[in-house]
Amino acid sequence: MKNLLLILCFLFITCSAFPQSTFDKSLNEISADIASKLSLKSKKKIVVLYVTDINKAQTVAGKYIADVISVNIVNDQGNFEVFDRENLSGITEAKKMIAEGYIDANKAKELGKILAVEAIIIGNYTVLTTTLKLTLKALDVNSGFVIAATMKDLPINADAGALLGINIGTTGDNNVNRGFNNRPLNSNESYNNPETVNSKCKEKNTGDYCFQNDTKYNLNVGLITTPGNSPDFTCTLQPGQKQCFYDLSVGSARYMISSGNLNDSNYSYNVRLDSQNVFKVNGQINIEQCKSKTFVIK
Fold first, then answer.
1. HEC assignment per residue over 88-151
2. What residues are paired with 254 via a beta bridge?
3. What Cα–Cα distance (Å) separates residue 195 from each residue in 6, 46, 53, 199, 296?
């Protein structure tokens, strides 16, 4: 009996020493909130699609968040039936619609028929200074309209930071390595899968940076990483195309983007279209060690 009591005490102390993180607790709370709202709408058969970043890109963090939300809703007392998202790989039509990155009313109706569900949960997140702002919406497959929505700030801890590709400092400075001058990512930036970065990135002190063209123009991109005004790296992007610069030296860099000639010296202003109807923008970015980022040109 004494041995049993000792074991129980040890288990209690061990469990108390490793409480659920605030990030996971907040994720559980937002899952319960959307589940409760769906229950009130009498929607029991659902699917949770990939949660994307603010630029609608699928990320490792987004997949993790969607998986946790799915598990939480399955275990909810509302007796939900949750379609296993991994089975989508065997459904060509559904996979194609989701890969296109945008679920409108018509697509919601089509997916509802294909997957035999009543509601589709979609979501996106934005990385802020110390939190991840998560937004979830539930679409009615009969109308395509949003019938439930919720939003919550999830405190970013070390584990969440690892998923997001953010280095969380131990001194309370949660802004380390999030962007230029330790600022959060801007609305055009997102982190990519860190596994794509050169395995010797720490030794070489390098990172990667990508540009994605979401405009209707053919664009020339120049990256200036050394003193001077001439681009050290260049590429040309057609609409919808993405290209990356690899093994860049860590630190701040300048970018020049134009539908015209990059050698045009007039980059003292930042406009979408100049007097000659040329798309032209410039700015500053931060290359981070062992990180890969994408800048979406809008």
1. HHHCHHHHHHHHCCCCCHHHHHHHHHHHCCCEEEEEEEEECCCEEEEEEEEEECCCCCEEEEEE
2. 224, 284
3. 44, 32, 18, 8, 20
Span 23-81, pLDDT tens digits: 889 999 999 999 999 999 999 999 998 788 776 777 778 888 999 999 999 999 889 99
Q: CATH 3.40.50.10610 in the chain, residues?
A: 19-159
Q: What is the pLDDT of residue 102?
A: 63
Task: Identify whether the C-beta of residue 298 lies closer than 8 Å to the C-beta of residue 215.
Answer: yes
Question: Residue range 209-234: average pLDDT?
Answer: 89
User: In CATH, which of 3.40.50.740, 2.60.40.10, 2.60.40.1120, 1.10.10.10 is domain 192-297?
Assistant: 2.60.40.1120
Beta bridge partners of 136: 123, 150
Please state, in angstroms and rounded to a whole number, the distance separating the CA atoms of residues 109 and 69: 22
Has residue 5 got a pLDDT over 50? no
Q: What dotted CATH number matches 19-159?
A: 3.40.50.10610
At 155, is the secondary structure helix, strand, or coil?
A: strand
Helices 105-115 and 92-99, interaxial angle, to 10°? 150
Quick one: 83 exposed, middle or buried, by C-beta within 10 A (0-12, 13-18, 19+)?
A: buried
pTM attached to this predicted model: 0.53
Distance CA 161, CA 138 (A): 27
Given a contact cutoff of 8 angstroms between Cβ atoms, the answer to whether 208 and 192 are in contact is yes
| Ranges for all domains in the chain classified under CATH 2.60.40.1120 | 192-297
